[in-house]
Amino acid sequence: MSDSVYRPPQISRRTVLQRLAATLVLGGLMPWQQVQAMSQNAGILRIKGTVHLNGQPASIGQLVKQGDHVETFADAEVVFVVGKDAYLQRAGSKIRLESGGGSTFSQVLRVISGRVLGVFAKGETQIATPTVTLGIRGTGVYIEACEDKTYVCLCYGKAEFTPLAQVEQAFTQTTQHHENPVWIYADVSQPLIEKAKAMNHTDAELEMLEALVGRVPPFVYQRLQHRSRY
């Protein structure tokens, strides 16, 4: 018998992506046309309800770029891709995409109000909300923002949090799978940071967004790697 150490078979990211694409189509989460848009700068891919791009009604196929602002009205939703980042913006939300302005960040996602789920490539990105800023690089993040508080679920990856009310309380999170959502408040008369539960976003949505830019979430890749050993 050979003395060599057994090494379980490895599954490639391409294979993972192909399996995920099939799951999304067969499960009704994403039509085939959207799967075909993977790894392409496809702009706006899905619209439900009333959505405005730069103050005008948005349409499928429009590109979204730095300097643009996107607004969703009641019962609306939009999915769009910017470069290697993908976004799901829910109803009643306003965001603006900005350049880094000469800072260490290549771009800024400004969540003025509302709810947005985003998956980001490895470039340095800042997420700015009314109560906290996040410095991220290659993560999945869900945000719910209003004037007095912000909910943040770092779904996976690493982020540096800076509460605007007390910047000296900055902290860093590293997560694998929704472990540590938090509320960040504007009122310093109460606890500034409060632990929360994961809410209002799903793994299926993260898988869909990552697939649109030719990636898979880390938890999916790890799960399929584990299955390939048996």
Task: Briefly say what this structure is.
The protein has 230 residues and is an alpha+beta fold.
Question: What report would you give on this structure?
Answer:
- The chain has one domain (13-228): Sandwich (Jelly Rolls), CATH 2.60.120.1440.
- 17% of the residues lie in helices and 38% in strands.
- It has helices spanning 13-26, 32-36, 203-212, 218-228, and strands at 43-48, 51-53, 56-57, 69-72, 77-82, 85-89, 93-99, 107-119, 125-128, 132-136, 140-145, 149-163, 171-175, 182-185, 193-195.
- A five-stranded mixed beta barrel has the order 8-9-10-12-11.
- The longest helix has 14 residues, at 13-26.
- The model is unreliable at 1-11 (pLDDT under 50).
Layout: helices, strands, pairs:
Layout: H1 13-26, H2 32-36, E1 43-48, E2 51-53, E3 56-57, E4 69-72, E5 77-82, E6 85-89, E7 93-99, E8 107-119, E9 125-128, E10 132-136, E11 140-145, E12 149-163, E13 171-175, E14 182-185, E15 193-195, H3 203-212, H4 218-228
Parallel strand pairs: 8-9
Antiparallel strand pairs: 1-5, 2-3, 2-4, 4-7, 5-6, 6-8, 7-8, 8-11, 9-10, 10-12, 11-12, 12-13, 12-14, 14-15
Helix pairs in contact: 1-3
